Amino acid sequence: MPLKIVVTLHGIRTRGQWQKQITPYLARHGLIPYHLDYGFFGVLSFLMPWTRAGRVQWLRGELRDLMDRTGATRVSLIAHSFGTWLALEVLEAENGNLRFDRVVLTGSIVRRDFPWGSTLLRKRWIQAVRNERATGDWVVRAAELFARLAGPLAPRAGASGALGFNTACPGVHDHHVAGGHSEVLNIANYDRWARFIAFPRLPPDHLRRVRMLVQQIRALAASRLGVDASLVRANLFVPSANALRMIPGAWDNMSWAPEHDIELAPDHGSTGRAFTDGTPFSIRRQGGSWTAGVLPGPEQARLDPRLQWVLSLPIGRLVTRDGITVARDVVAVLNVDGLDSVPPLLQTADDPTLKTLVFTLWASTEKIRESLALADTGEPLHDD
Amino acid sequence: MTIDPPATLHDVAEHHDELVQFVYRAAAAPGLVANARSLLAAAPTELAASFEQAMLASEFAS
Hints:
The complex is a heterodimer of chains A (384) and B (62). Chain A has helices at 17-28, 43-47, 49-70, 82-94, 116-122, 138-149, 160-163, 187-198, 204-225, 269-277, 297-302, 352-363, 366-377, and strands at residues 4-9, 31-36, 75-80, 100-106, 128-134, 172-177, 232-240, 243-246, 263-264, 281-284, 307-321, 324-339. Chain A has 384 residues and is an alpha/beta fold.
């Protein structure tokens, strides 16, 4: 899983002291900070369209340069106040040439009807957003008032940093506190922002619990399939940057290193089908090869040559749809797979014993789903 | 492991070449859940708790 670069961007009438303070929190979660500073920008400058436009051009150049030099296809972002407006103006101006990974907005003056549905879900210009707002933030309300009164000279601004967005979207997470414009820049929030951006890499608390459940599911599968546990493995795939990838460390007995970097299209193989269809799938090796076309060549070459079978369990909320049990809002796929030979039970797909076992393993992933959902928003594990 | 006959369905698997899809019809849920619980009886408590949480959150509670 590639390392993530986190651009930080301050607001007006400040040089962003918080940008320096947040560095160790980002580092703790394996993130690479890149602090941008456009100098002291006063209220008068904010009111002038040409000075705002100048800062938009500056940020476009900075981000293009950063991505050219690092080879990153996306960067994450933490922005405050005017920085939030700048970042999303640049995103819209670039019209798909720039893509953000995960974005934290603090004291946001982005307009409240920002089209998250089209930029976030459909075009995937952004993967996810955490909007950190303070309900008593008069600065962002003043920005919205100015945007209303100043007519064509006004920025497309709004009080999303106080009132939130009115365009609900699954990838936009709202968090609010009582207080004013700088209240959200509270050091107590920094670890959560770093966790949010690091996802799908899991912080230690979630990783411990997820790994324990993955181990237990693997052990139960091995025991019920009558297979030596050393020949059974387990791993967890999540969507990340347009592919399904393994969460580092959230695996058990995965000793074939090339597999750690496998990238699957969301409809490839049993993993991809489980992800898209929301039901368990299994696949097994027959003769010398897997089903033709199940995986593209480079990914097929990364598989452990001893791999003989895979059971893919979609992780989501179990619901009934058209009389069939499916996982809804699938967030991940847990694969239990095995080496050297296919257990006899797996060769009889209609055997009720196998069906019960698969259902048991599938439903037992619920606490993994819960942890992934919390980690996706940056929240720590709550006590059971 | 004992399988309660009402929990079994003979049309729950669909084959797509070598891919097998496990399809669970809601009508079988009560027997299926009971069998799953018996299978989890000797499993670690965390795993059983995870299963029960899924049952509470889903429409299978019985």
